[in-house]
Amino acid sequence: MEHVTSRWGVLVLIRLLERPHRFAELRRSITPIGPVSEKMLGQTLQSLERDGLVNRDVKPVIPPHVDYSLTDLGREAAEQVRALALWTNERMDQVAKAREHYDVAKERA
């Protein structure tokens, strides 16, 4: 659960839901949202692979060609994560209003 819901885990799953990616391509697609180091992305992919959510497909060519894709379990998790991300994005105005209302009420107390 921790790997699926981590900052980078969520972004990796959602990106891989679109299609398989190579490491550098995946890193570039995530970077506009927030800069991810090679080390952190590598650890995230390794954790998701260990959990059975990501496939790592190494092609025997020079230079090495590695594709990352979702397993069936990973696709299922990614669809759930994406649905939550979309819901959160759609409800941010309501969350902001609720926070404002809460803060005003706390200041009065």
Number of strands: 3
β-sheet strand percentage: 5-15%
What average pLDDT do the residues reach?
92
Rg: 18 Å
Brief overview, please?
The protein has 109 residues and is α+β, with helices and mostly antiparallel strands. Helices cover 67% and strands 13% of the residues.
Describe it.
With 109 residues, the protein is α+β, with helices and mostly antiparallel strands. Helix content is 67%, strand content 13%. It has a three-stranded antiparallel β-sheet with strand order 1-3-2. Helix 2 packs across helix 5. The N and C termini lie far apart (38 Å).
Could you name the key traits of this structure?
alpha+beta; three-stranded antiparallel β-sheet; 3 strands; elongated
